[in-house]
Design a protein that fits this description.
Elements (H helix, E strand, L loop, with lengths): L1 H18 L1 H16 L13 H8 L3 E6 L19 H6 L2 E9 L19 H9 L6 H21 L4 E4 L3 H12 L4 E9 L11 H13 L2 E5 L22 H13 L2 E2 L6 H10 L5 E5 L17 H9 L3 E4 L3 H4 L5 H15 L8 E3 L17 H9 L6 H19 L5 H9 L9 H4 L35 H26 L5 H20 L3 H12 L4 H29 L4 H32 L2 H9 L10 H16 L4 H12 L3 H82 L1
Parallel strand pairs: 1-2, 2-4, 3-4, 4-5, 5-6, 7-8, 8-9
Amino acid sequence: MIWLVLLLAVGYGTYIAYTEYASGLYYLAGRYDRMMNPYGIDPEAPEPSEEDRKFHRSMFVADMHADTLKWERDLLERSNYGHADVPRMMEGNIALQGFTIVTKSPIRMPWSNCVGRNNPDANTLLTAMQGRPVFNLHDRAFYQIERFKDAVERSKETPGPELRLIETVEDLKALVADRKAGKAVIGGFLGIEGGHWVGGALEDGEAVRADMQELFDAGVRMFAPNHRFDNDLSGSNEGCEAYGLTERGRMALQEAARLGMAVDLAHISQAGLRDAAEMLERPFTVSHTGVRANCEDPCRPHRNLSDEEIELIIQNDGVIGVGFWPQAIGPSVWRIADTMAHIMRTAEQMGRERSRHVALGSDYDGSVTPLIRVGNLDVLTTIMRRRDEPFSPDEIRNISGRNVCRLLATVLPGGSRETARELCAELDEVEPVPLQEAGGGSLGGGAGSAGGLGDAGSASFSGDSGSSLASGSLLSNTVTWIARSQSALTNRLHGQLHGAPSGAGFGGFAIILASFVYGLLHAAGPGHGKVVAGAYFLANPGRPAQAIGLSAAMAFLQAASAIVIVTALLLVAGTTISQLTLQAKFVEALAYGLILLLGLAMLLRCVTGRGTCSACADHGGEPGQRPAGQGGRLRDYAALAVGVGLRPCSGALLLLLFTLAAGMFHIGVVATLAMALGSAITISLSALGAISVRHGVSKLALNAGGAAAVQRFGPMAARGAEAFGGLLIAAAGALFLAAAILRMGHL
């Protein structure tokens, strides 16, 4: 009878795992997405005035680079994690967006100084978690292309803004006309970032032409030969060899230009850029970059353009998309405009029009930390208007959209320099899209616009399946409700931070209360605290008081870690926010490493017959009330608390930074502790639920098989339970550690 109970339990568990595949996918890929795509924060970001906002909404805004298709989010639905989707783009008044397709991303360890051709590929892990093509780079790319086209078609049939694929100059003209008329539409052009598979394994010109034609026929209109790796087309600016264009690379770029694609030389080696500039006759672009001049930590010089490269691009009448993340521009959001100004001065010294060669190249969703939210691009407009040497209105319009319009109107099928001159000159002023048509109002400005608490919130389940509460299973719907509640609460907390600058009275109390509720809901979403606590008490006997105490230790240690890091590094040591973020990432990686070691230790105990498993084997039944093994459990509790608690809560870090910038750090400390209390309550419920499940299964087994069966099979079941719990904890630690290391590799 006991074997029948175990068989039914395994069968039901397999059924749940299968039917809840979408929720599992959400957990793994969504957690990784949140770790890789947070927003940065700069408390010095300006608050746009009504005049700033009005000017911003009168422009045709174009951004050259977003890697959003890489992630398992629905473009048409607002997500409370990651960087970009159509509703948030509309809030930022984006009219034209480059959606770039990444197929390979290197794992670059912090001690490495270059990316080898054969470096491990992080996207293999990601695509496996997402259920996408894993081993074929061509198939990875075309999966993303079809995903974008599916969103385009669905946007025509559902309420909200229309998403439109731009393939020809006629498409661009229609988009310009509709935006000038105030219609809620976003144009998207597809770009390849890294043509690693183009041409196949053989030096065959026909194969290169066939691959480029296939990309063009699929709608791709921008082509970059490299993405961080050296490959058969060219060396990379981060590559270990950094050679120039190969013969195959020359053929690929010539074919791209002939077909009507914009050539994107982002990530290419300096030798490769020189080769391309000598060869190409039409304007090309570097879609997302910074400049090496005045590159201040954490800016990475080798990733950015030298003055020589800038001059080559300007001579070609090309366009440089300036990135929004610290490794491209430095530690301050104001450095975005400073980088633009450097390019403009270079053009002026060359006798060219100052603002003709600069554009926006955010790199949203590119595993970076942009310092400006996509829904708050008016902050960048404000910076350009308010800097010590402000840009003129005409220069801002050029940078914000005209230059991208000019590039595409020149190179796309049906395009020419004359067409570009006529079409893009019309972009003096467009009719603002009403915010209700854009999908909602702005979520705030000022410091919050250049980062904020949204990246600390739980990932919303907004994939193609389960995106509505009206469909899907109870578990999927519950996850969706929690995520949406987290998003709403994040915005409420964001508003409270800006609405109580003095930190006094009701405003301060509201921040503390909102933080407590945020902690409750944030912990209800996917996170390693619940996974570790639940898995441990499912695998090992424990009492409710122990579960509650351990959960509280985890939550309050996370809060204390955030408070200590901000106080010690920012207030005492005087480090910058970017340096603080870097230190926090190292602490995060260490914490995940401890979780991995704990899981492996549990597995080792079962293999060697020591500890809890051994106690069960010697006595049978539940060892929870016996003193034997108590020291081992205390060591486990300490390791669990430190492993989870050592990682500072990202929401608490951002809350402390906001309140510090607003002059109410004491309120931030209290609110952080309130957030920890909320998290402790939710994690405790997870641990108590695990204890109840373990007790219920034990009782069911006793009733089904009797004491003799429990005495016989109990040690085996206990050993299996701890092995399973150890495996789950180790897997969670390994997953989060891998993501943390990958993030460190992008720093």
